[in-house]
Specification:
This protein has 254 residues and is α+β, with helices and mostly antiparallel strands. The chain has 2 domains: 128 residues, Topoisomerase I, Chain A, domain 4 (Orthogonal Bundle), CATH 1.10.132; 105 residues, Gyrase A, domain 2, CATH 3.30.1360. 61% of the residues lie in helices and 13% in strands. The longest helix has 73 residues.
Length: 254
């Protein structure tokens, strides 16, 4: 009987781990930053076959909000771009020409991470085009859409977990029939410990994603305010210049 109870709790943990891993993966695909898992969420169709991106290209993250994808062959560019846009239509996708350097490697941006600059990608004349995927800025509309997506995924996850927890609670109660009060109490505490563990894991994951979105929106607002202030200063400066020219022109008439 004890082994049956142990196996039942282990089975529940395995299922909850799967639900939680999928939930985390889905939240990571709500991209504020260039999350590597976003490149695992699609396959590329080429020659009537579906290929993982890593079979057709290399990729790195030159900056926090950008992927740089290096196709193994130029003919892969369109299928890769098509696959990206189908799964992540919000990405800003551009093609960049990259020149060959003296040491037969591809030129890398100055702000590329050190590990990338220390391991440059071998140059291939037929593949001198890179695909640049940039995460869009988090303005008000994007902020609201992303928060709604987080809420919807969180509600779906909670519904799955609640149903599963209720199922395993009933099965556990059945398996504990005839056990001692001490054994029943120990098993229920163990069960509750694991339900709380996954609940807390999901809660922290959601909070991190919501904070990431909120922080990105704040940066957008601060950037917009700075830009508006700069434009206002430029307009004021131009207005002063025009006014000065008018006054100087009036003076010259006398």
């Amino acid at each position: 009987m004890r082994k049956k109870v142990f196996d039942l709790i282990e089975e529940a943990k395995s299922k909850w781990s799967g639900y939680t891993a999928l939930y985390c993966y889905q939240l990571l695909n709500i991209c504020v930053k260039a999350e590597p898992v976003a490149l695992l969420s699609f396959k590329v169709e080429f020659d009537d076959e579906m290929h993982p991106l890593e079979h057709l290209a290399n990729a790195f993250i030159p900056r926090e909000d950008q992927f740089e994808i290096v196709p193994n062959d130029e003919e892969y560019i369109f299928p890769i771009c098509k696959a990206i846009k189908e799964v992540h239509p919000e990405f800003d996708v551009d093609i960049k020409e990259v020149e060959e350097t003296d040491d037969n490697t591809q030129e890398l941006p100055k702000d590329a991470p050190e590990e990338v600059r220390n391991n440059p990608i071998e140059y291939d004349e037929e593949c001198s085009k890179h695909i640049i995927c940039t995460m869009p800025q988090v303005n008000k509309d994007r902020h609201d859409a992303m928060m709604d997506a987080v809420k919807a995924l969180s509600e779906k996850y909670k519904q799955q977990m609640d149903m599963s927890k209720e199922e395993y609670k009933i099965r556990l109660d059945t398996a504990l029939i005839g056990e001692t009060d001490k054994r029943i109490d120990q098993s229920k505490k163990e069960y509750k410990k694991w339900t709380s563990t996954y609940d807390e894991m999901a809660k922290k994951t959601r909070e991190r994603k919501e904070k990431e979105i909120a922080d990105a929106y704040q940066r957008y607002q601060e950037g917009k305010q700075a830009k508006d202030a700069h434009e206002q200063e430029e307009r004021a400066a131009k207005g002063e210049a025009v006014s000065l020219r008018m006054k100087m022109g009036e003076t010259e008439e006398y």
